[in-house]
C-alpha cells in the first residue's frame, strides 16, 4: 500500500499571489487547517510544499504555499493531487476506512461465496455506496452496519450480508 493519501485536487490558480483552488477529496475539511506541508507528485518526482494559509470559498479550499508566489507558478499545479503521508492523516474510527484502502478489495458474502471486487465508492447523502464488480454486472452495496459485516484491510477482504433485492 502506498503511504500517501490524496486530500485534494488543484483545480486552478486563484488571484495573482500564487494561491490555488483545491477541490477537497476528504470528508474532514477542517484537516486543511492542520497541514504544515503537503506533497505534489510529478513524473520528475515528489515535491514538498509548505502551507502558508488556508481559507474556504463555497465548497473549495484556497491554499497559499510559501514556495509559490505568483499566478504563473500556481497555474503549473493545475490538475495535481495534494497528498499527505498516512502519519498526517486524520484518525479514523474503528468502522471508518480510507477509500484507497477499500478499492480492489475482494468482497465475499457472509456464507463465504466470492461476490466480486470493490471498484468504486459513491458518496451519497445518507451513506456511502460500494460498487462491486461481479462476473455478470455491478452490484451497489450500501455501506451500512446491517450489510458490511467485516473489513480486513491487511487481507484485502470484505464480508457483506446481502439484503433482499441486492
From TrEMBL:
Against SUPFAM superfamilies, the record matches this protein to: PRC-barrel domain, Translation proteins
Which InterPro entries does the entry link to? PRC_barrel-like_sf, PRC_RimM, RimM, RimM_N, RimM_N_sf, Transl_B-barrel_sf
Tell me where it resides: Cytoplasm
Does the keyword section mention rRNA processing? Answer: yes
Domain annotation RimM N-terminal: ranges: 7-87
- Chief place of localization: cytoplasm
NAD recorded as keyword: no
* Task performed by this protein: An accessory protein needed during the final step in the assembly of 30S ribosomal subunit, possibly for assembly of the head region. Essential for efficient processing of 16S rRNA. May be needed both before and after RbfA during the maturation of 16S rRNA. It has affinity for free ribosomal 30S subunits but not for 70S ribosomes.
Q: How does it assemble?
A: Binds ribosomal protein uS19.
Q: Which family does it belong to?
A: Belongs to the RimM family.
Q: What is this protein called?
A: Ribosome maturation factor RimM
